[in-house]
Fold:
Amino acid sequence: MKRVSSSRSCRAYRMAASLPAALFVSSLLTTPIGLAADQHASHGDMGGASAEKVIYREGGAILHDRMMEEVKRQQEAIGKKGGYSTGANSHMLQQGVLLVAEDPTKIAVTAGQRCPANVPIKEYHVSAINIEITLSRFLDYFPGYMYVLKENVEKARGEEAANREAREKENDPGAVSNGLQGDIIQPLVIRANQGDCLKLTLHNEIPDDPTSLVINGSSMVVAATGKPATPSNPEGTVASGGQQSFEWYIKPDTQEGARFFRSHASREQFNQGLIGMLVVEPRGSRYLSPFDGKPMASGWEAMIEDPKGADFREFAIFYHEAGDEAFRLLNKKGEMLPQRDPHTDSYRPGARLLNYRSEPHGTRIELQAHMGFYGDESMAYGSYTFGDPATTIPRSYLGDPAKFRMAGGSEIVHSHHLHGGSIRWARQPGNSNLDFALSKNGPVKFPAISDPSDRLDVQSIGPTEVYDQVIEGGSGGLQALAGEFVFHCHIPQHYVTGMWGFWRVYNTLQQPGFQTDVMKPLVELPDRVGKIKTGTQSDKLVGTTVDWYGGKKYEITKDKTDWKANPVKVSIKDWVEMMLTPQGKPGKKNSEKEQTLAYDSTVNDWAWDGQKAMSELETTYEWVNYKSATPGKRQEILFDPQSGKIAWPWLRPHLGRRVPFSPSHSGAPWLEPIHRRDDGSNSTEPPKPGEQGPWSLCPEGAPQKYFNIHAITLPITLKRATAKTPAIVDPGGLLYVLHEEEQEVRKNPAKQMPLVIRGNVQDCIDVVYKSELKDDVRQGFSSKTNLHPHMFQFDTQASDGPIIGFSYEMSLRPFTILKDEHPGKGMPVPMNTTMEADAAKGTSSIKVKDASRYHVKTELGVGMDEVGAFESARISKIEGNTIMFERPLRYMSI
Structure:
């Protein structure tokens, strides 16, 4: 029996191995393609062990329950041993133990230097207050503490009141913005320059409790006495209703970067929000608002105008917790949130924060399920499915230099990971020769490999630790990519719990009337004004010549395409269709709910209005993260007038809906939208290296490597049987395998190992990925899988794995599913069917059992399970159950 799968069953990834090392991590995926193939039933053996000597180890929720029962048992046992065991008990529950000096007189501290006369002064009046901290637009919250500039206390109280009032309403997010754009309720971030005198007055507005503000790594002193402003100095603690003034002479040679500050008055104040950051900026810098370009006093995101270097965007990110491990958060009704999320099995949903914000995956999936749609964990990061989150969304323009100032929290260690492949930073930026403005004028395909510092894309951050991440490639990375770059704690329990955000990089100016999302306007860096243009409608591209960094130029015409002309001529219709997912109604349905339930990602219902490309109909649903200004209407799709590329992002939220696949199921739809055959026709193969000129992900002449990777399920022997012990076998083991090695891996336990593939520096790597995983109760009858690479250059819109923001679908359903074996459970059957007859090499059509769900101009996978004979074919016509392709098949399907 021959099977045919739609483009949702396979994914194409493309990466350029331009870095000295690369790593695949099994958590996410790339671009899918549709296919036809046979399924095998071989599942391998049990490693030679008899059934009587096999121990089966269960995973998932069962294992989690057993672990929690054991923790509870040990906790009860330790609790009977007295005070000596407190530290062990806290450690087991992931709680920190604050260290307090028994004899403060033994702590020797040298006083810092007083500020000299005539140095620049930065003065701040900071209030410490009690405040309700609202975590998301779903209005989960907790009573906490906060540092805030004294002049902003009333604004903070106004936000607090608005959030409290919103809890009584439906779909009202209060004062919580998408992406934390300008909210006053956020950890306080203030700035001073090298050579400045910082003057800071702390006002304690916390009733009945003393408080303090200690800047780590500073030599701050009490202004009145000159004594060190340390926790051991009583003058540094401010009584309720009182105030104290401090100063710090920041010497001109002081290291640039973040300094964490916090209250040392109590653990409760510390772990419930009384934290902040002082950033030491280059000498003479000005701090400007990213929203209007005016000088700003505080905020986690800023533009830094450096008189002696490149201006840059700065993002201060706090990885922290809400209370300790026993602390309970509240929902909008004032009820305690569960300690364990029922959708994702994560612990303490909402309790892992970025800058006072948290958006648990389970909260989003619950909204999806509440609407009667499929609970899809793979979409939990997605803005198309759920709208932009309330967590931090740093924003910038292509090529903008950028620095992240990272800070740890109060209780436990986190691990910051920023996606993007070539989005990496020097471990020791002060010793590095890497140029953080390297990509300001376009892609850099061959960055320097050797440097005094290592490069990182993951950094562990302990409580109160700080790290300065100077991004080597700037905004968009070395590949100059518009898109979404997720960052999160790399501990799955933490990011699923809500500790995630993403960096959005635009290619068009975000001015009123020309914005492509729900955020505030965004101004350009002072020294880059004019680099970015406002987006334009597609019909305005006609008659213009667009330029891809001087290496490729294209003349956009009304109706003529000539790929051999110089410059190349492309009709507006061909140009736009090259940039967008194929037109069509998902599931061939008309209503919004039916299109969502169809779970069809092969098309998007955008439309033409003359030569103007228009979006799919705006959603008519309203929810906390999105309310359309034009429900049920189409919006103009914008393009960059300089490059002609689609303005990012171009999609708009549709609650619960599966995001579409990339155009042509390409692994690099934004970096490499052009992939033509010699005759000028649109190819279904990956672009040729260098085909996009300087913007090519894979530069001209790059050696190419191809990998056909399958995800499979099989029993894996973890430990063989011995004379005295039984074998330990995982009956539902999961592996990546090369398709051509699959049968041997299934037969030979010695080869049942994690997959390792190799590429040389500057190779071009193309991966076709398919899933044969089971769609069973373990997977919630909703099996999806993907791939996530590190340290390559790649297009995050379609080769990152996780579906971030408005990125395309990068997760696959199994191509082996042909019928609904679990009616009423999980996701619908993928768009797979069977071939009714063999397809000979060179044929241009195939007959299948059911072609009713397929669309013209989408890709179909042929030979899904045939080693060395898989191909992607684009549908040109459908007549009944006969599917015709644009080109003859290259292989024979048998």
About this structure: The first helix runs from residue 60 to 79.
